[in-house]
Amino acid sequence: MAKEREEGKTPRHLRTPAGEALTDVVRSRAEDCGGTEETVRYYRGALEPFVASMAERPLHRWGPDDTLAWMKAHPKWSPRTIQKFLVQVCTFATWCRARQFDAPGLVGSLRAPRIPRRNRDPLTPDQVAALVAAAAGHDWLEVPVALAAFAGLSLGDCRSLDWTEVDLERRRIVRAHKKSGRPLNVPIAPALAAVPKARRAVAGPVCRAMRASSSAVSKGVRGLYLRAGVPRHKGDGLHALRTAFVSARVAAGVDLATMSDLIGDDPATVARYYTHSASAAREAAVALIASALDDGSTHRRQESV
After folding, report:
1. Average pLDDT, stretch 152-169?
2. Which of 13, 123, 188, 212 is 20 to 30 Å apart from 19, CA to CA?
3. Which residue did the predictor score with more confidence, 292 or 126?
4. What is the DSSP letter of 303?
5. Same domain for 79 and 139?
């Protein structure tokens, strides 16, 4: 850079157009970071049109106003799409700074609209059993489906679980540290023990043949729902089995602190995302509250008399 200044040239990191920076960053993501082709397509598909709209302006002249203008140019974007786009822009800026490009804060105070929480009943025990039966014998889905249904493991945990973390004799899955920063310590139920035992290996990943592509996993799980005859909501996958596992244990009386220790998540996260009241339980609670209110009002009327 000093040599370029001596020669009267603008340093490369200041004169590099955004399009060239995107190409360089995506290439480094694929080669240096081991990103999959799906990851490259994901970021290119989202960012290339945006970067092209900058008309090859130098990257250091790009700011949050440009990001906001692009979002306003797509009024039909859903809150989730806007959220994903802002994450991609932040990731792009971080990559650029790591590659010595002068990339400013491209998001600033911009925030995506709040995504409404989808409150729906978890899968019933019969539906979980039907999905597990549909996955039986599947070359790569049988093990992750069983781990999600009987141990509450997430997709990320299923991908990274190693045989050194599975003790079939003591029937425990133990991981000192996972993505959330909390340990994972889940008992292996008898229904789960037979599945990994049949595919036992000396070392390596437990879900050995699991697809690296998230879309391939989603497609495989959609097929399971069809074969099992289980109604599927948009977005349902392995996460629905994890939710059913946690919700059933909480409904059975396991407190949130214990449940969070078992699955390796924060108690607030468990309470917000994994505990759902079934319709029958909600109706029973409403009837109980109404009965208590009626009893209280009757008692007050009798005292007044």
Report:
1. 87
2. 212
3. 126
4. H
5. no
Tokens of 225: 């729902």
**Residue spans of alpha helices (H) in the chain:** 2-6, 12-15, 18-31, 37-52, 64-72, 79-98, 125-135, 142-151, 155-160, 190-198, 214-228, 238-251, 256-263, 267-269, 279-304
Residues 75 and 144 in one domain: no
The residues, any chain, with a CB within 8 Å of residue 62's CB and separated by 6 or more, are 18, 54, 103, 104, 106
Q: Which of 98, 115, 138 is the last residue of a domain?
A: 98
pLDDT at 170: 86
- Give the pLDDT confidence score for residue 135 in this predicted structure: 93
* Backbone dihedral angles phi then psi of residue 205, each to the nearest 5 degrees: -70, 145
Picking from 120, 127, 128, the residue whose alpha carbon sits closest to that of residue 279 is: 120
Element (H, E) at 273: none
Residue 293 falls inside a structural domain: no
64 and 189, same domain (yes or no): no
Expressed as residue numbers, the domain containing 6 is 2-98
In order, the DSSP letters of 122-144 are PPPHHHHHHHHHHHTT-TTTHHH
Q: Is residue 141 part of a domain?
A: yes
pLDDT bracket for residue 7 (50, 70, 90) = very low
**Closest to 141 (Cα-Cα) out of 221, 228, 215:** 221
Report helix, strand or coil for 33.
coil
For position 160, which CATH number holds? 1.10.443.10
Q: What is the pTM of this model?
A: 0.62
- For the segment 210-233, the average pLDDT, to the nearest whole number, is 88
Q: CB under 8 Å to 153, separation ≥6 — which residues?
A: 144, 147, 161, 173, 184, 186, 242, 263
Determine the pLDDT at residue 127: 93
Residue 230: predicted pLDDT: 92
Which residues on neighbouring strands pair with residue 184, listed in sequence order?
A: 175
Domain count, the chain: 2
